[in-house]
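It is worth pausing here to work through a concrete case rather than discussing structure prediction in the abstract. The textbook approach is simple: state the sequence, then state the predicted structure, then interpret. We follow exactly that order.
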Amino acid sequence: MIRYFWILLLILPCFSRAGDTYLTRYVRGHRCLVVAPKDLPSGAPVVLLLHGYGTNADEMLGISGEFQLPTCLLVLPDGPLTAGRSPFTHAWYNRLTHSRKDIERSRDYLCAVMDYFSKQYSISSDAEDPLEAPVETKPEKAGRPVVIMGFSQGAVMSLEAGLNYKGNIAAVVSMNGYMGEPEKTLAHPAASHKTPILVVHGTLDPIVQEEMTQATLQALRKAGYRPVSKGFQVGHKMTAGTLRAVSEFLLSTFNPPNASGI
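Step two, the predicted structure:
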């Protein structure tokens, strides 16, 4: 916790916006950083931003301001697994075995996170809320729209959880991710075929190679989705081009040019 405190002191000045509230909540025993304006509009989305292997929510918080997010409730969860010996590095699944059980457990955890922050969380009642968030599924309530986006392992989980979440998914963003077993991820998807999906990838990525990206796009199209693909001549990393592509995608999603026409 001491390390997290000093990290936040360093990165919050870079991200901080007037009126924002910064909090920590725990869902199923795992930490989520939460950022939101105190006057969050009732229809504002929840945006989940997922880190890659071996990092944590603090790192993603440090760059989140670069995405030009809409007014939102920003939630940055730590992966439920530890990566190596350090308690400060997290993962969503074992990167050597690519365990399907790990992926499904992390998917179910992320669905609980989305349920809580979409359907139950109220920033006006933080003083009374317990630090450990009580997650109760309320299927009758649509809740706030949810955008789930991530990098690397976080991108894999964005596709896995976003496409299978039974709540109100507004958009899915994968940055240098893929679907390892699309026949399982897409066996019974809950997301509407109209859900905006952005797949950003590096054509020189040695980890998530181009054929993996193309197989993912093909599987999504075969399942009835219409993903937008943005490729850049870079490796396994986020760049200014990545940030710009995501920002433009979110802008078009929440402010469609023909919103008043069709």
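Step three, interpretation. The chain has a mean pLDDT of 86. The helical segments are 2-15, 57-64, 100-120, 153-164, 182-185, 210-222, 240-254.
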